[in-house]
Write a structure and sequence with these properties.
Shape: globular
Strand content: 5-15%
Number of helices: 16
Largest sheet: 8 strands, mixed
Low-confidence stretches: 310-328
Structural class: alpha/beta
Number of strands: 8
Bound molecules: adenosine-5'-diphosphate, magnesium ion
Mean pLDDT: 84
Strand order of the largest sheet: 3-4-2-5-1-6-7-8
Radius of gyration: 22 Å
Length: 381
């Protein structure tokens, strides 16, 4: 069974659109496909598929992890495509308990018996559990849009994935683990955590862990999809992500292709049909078919982590908070150095952030006003 996790770091770049339509394309090509909405808490994959709001889904299973998983797998109108809805009732992938995540991974892997391709539509963010779902395969897809924030998020996601892999592969108590921990604690003020710089030092300290990591990372080949481009030159951004990944993460990413922004998608959504069924000839559908073909032609994606390691990774809940490299902002530096971000891009980002801040401030003031009015009316807080 080929596992294809689809991630982005940030929402709104087209993960669900790509997941649903790849599912349709693979099924049309004769594959037995299961499509899973893992964006728990913000599930909307059913909308892209044109399904009614589901009554049962992963949330149903997670509330009783001993229950029969097959009852939450729904059939779709597309022959060969089955669908596991998420559940808006539960708070989000990030909040799953270790036991829930473990049970879910086990059930997903067990689908192997009658499934050729398992597509995982991942939630936004770089939380540990999302990284672990991404690492279930060596060939996860990372979706980005040409906008600077989307590119940043894609890079940050990949950077966190590599560090997550290190933390998972290095056993606690080994010299490699201690080194990694020390690097992290020393913080970004001293030096950036560049993989090509760290690896020789790790090799020196701990040959066994180093070899183990090299074995895993050699099987990690994330694939990029650049969505929502308006202009051919928007596609150049992909090269910049690639260069940053090679230079700072020692990570070879593959480019699966670009997808244009297409206004027909809105019509497809309101017609309750995936775009591949609504307008197979559209530029959007053609882009997706091209990507589907590339994936089908490529080799079987192997598991990067074996089951024992996945188990282990889920148990290490304690590491969760520590892995948050995202806060460190190192990545801005990486992207500046590699030329992926120009100072002009930074100015644009700051401007848009300032817009967000002023919007939030207004909302905040509005809410404060409402609270004070409520208190004045004798509202019992
Ligand atoms: N190439 C595209 N052309 C037009 N609309 C798109 C395209 N890709 C995504 N969209 C729209 O953008 C919005 C976000 O896409 P979605 O797949 O829900 O993103 P995500 O799952 O990453 O949050 C949706 O309304 C979707 O229909
Ligand atoms: Mg989505």
């Amino acid at each position: 069974m080929r596992i294809i996790p689809i991630a982005s770091g940030k929402g709104g770049v087209g993960k669900s659109l790509l997941s649903a339509n790849l599912g349709v394309a693979f099924a049309q090509a004769g594959q037995r496909v299961v499509l899973v909405d893992l964006d728990l808490g913000a599930s909307n994959l059913h909308l892209v598929l044109g399904h009614q709001a589901p009554k049962t889904g992963i949330g149903t299973f997670l509330n009783d992890i001993k229950s029969d998983f097959s009852t939450v797998i729904a059939d779709t109108d597309v022959r060969g495509l089955r669908f596991v809805p998420g559940d808006t009732e539960i708070p989000g992938t990030a909040n799953l308990k270790a036991s829930q995540r473990k049970a879910l991974v086990k059930r997903l892997l067990a689908l192997e018996a009658d499934t050729d391709i398992l597509i995982l539509d991942l939630g936004a963010g770089t939380h540990q559990s999302i990284l672990d779902f991404f690492l279930l395969s060596g060939q996860g897809i990372i979706v980005s849009a040409p906008a600077v924030t989307a590119v940043l998020n894609a890079y940050v996601f990949l950077k966190n994935t590599v560090f997550r892999l290190m933390y998972t592969v290095f056993a606690k108590g080994t010299a490699a683990y201690d080194y990694l921990d020390k690097m992290r604690k020393d913080g970004s003020g001293h030096q950036h955590l560049y993989i090509p710089k760290m690896l020789p030092e790790i090799k020196n300290l701990d040959k066994v862990s180093h070899e183990k990591f090299m074995d895993h990372i050699s099987r990690l080949h994330p694939r990029l999809v650049m969505n929502m481009i308006d202009d051919p030159k928007d596609a150049d951004v992909a090269m910049k992500i690639r260069r940053s990944c090679e230079e700072y993460l020692d990570l070879k990413i593959e480019h699966l292709g670009v997808i244009y922004r297409d206004t027909l998608q809105d019509k497809a959504l309101s017609s309750r049909l995936p775009i591949l069924l609504y307008k197979p000839q559209s530029i959007l559908s053609q882009g997706i078919y091209r990507i589907a073909d590339k994936i089908l032609e490529s080799d079987e994606g192997k598991l990067v982590l074996d089951m024992a390691e996945i188990e282990n990774s889920f148990q290490e809940a304690g590491v969760e908070a520590e892995i948050d490299f995202e806060n460190k902002m190192d990545y801005v530096e990486d992207l500046l150095h590699s030329g992926a971000l120009t100072p002009g891009d930074m100015v644009e980002t700051v401007k848009s952030q300032q817009f967000e801040i002023s919007k939030l401030r207004k909302e905040n003031n509005f809410l404060k006003l409402k609270i004070s009015q409520a208190i004045a009316r004798g509202f019992d807080a």
